[in-house]
Amino acid sequence: MIAAIAPYYGFGNSMPIFISSGKRSDYKKYAPLLFANLNSMALDYILRQKVQGQNLNLFILEQLPLIPPERFEDEIGGRKIADFIRDEVLHLTWTAEDMRPFALDLGCDGEPFAWDAEDRRHRMARLDALFFHLYGIGRDDAAYILDQFPIVRADDEKEFGRYRTKDMILAYLNAIAAGDLATRVNV
Fold first, then answer.
1. Is the pLDDT of residue 145 over 90?
2. What sign for the dihedral angle of Cα 121, 124, 130, 134?
3. pTM of the full structure
4. CA dist 144 → 47, 51, 82 (Å)
């Protein structure tokens, strides 16, 4: 699954959209959490078990086990999970002027963050590790799931000579299990 923040336009059957029916403050609070959940490798793996082709219809999305919003109110290492996710999503999305409205919704009125591929790898790995943790998926099962992404593996092996994404996610999963959301792992 590739989830994206998109402007308010019409979309067809092959591109289901989520539109908040609540207050704007609810959107600001929950959109980044849903966005991160939908883009996690843990959910992508679950989705692969349900999709028979390349078309993702709304009836399939309605069956997905999303993390309940109240779970994001928990803390890891003294930091609320929701705040951590919002900060990571902000850094990953606010890299160009066209995302300014979303950044403003998240409370950031500064300039876009400079694109830094290595920093992005770490932020995405931390988020993936966090969602494995939130889904209750342990290290061994996470390792198995990550092995089911052959294109990611091939790209990593081509660029780094090893499956670095897997190594990073598993290292961050260890840090999260130890109650640490702040450490940047070296792999």
1. yes
2. negative
3. 0.91
4. 16, 19, 27
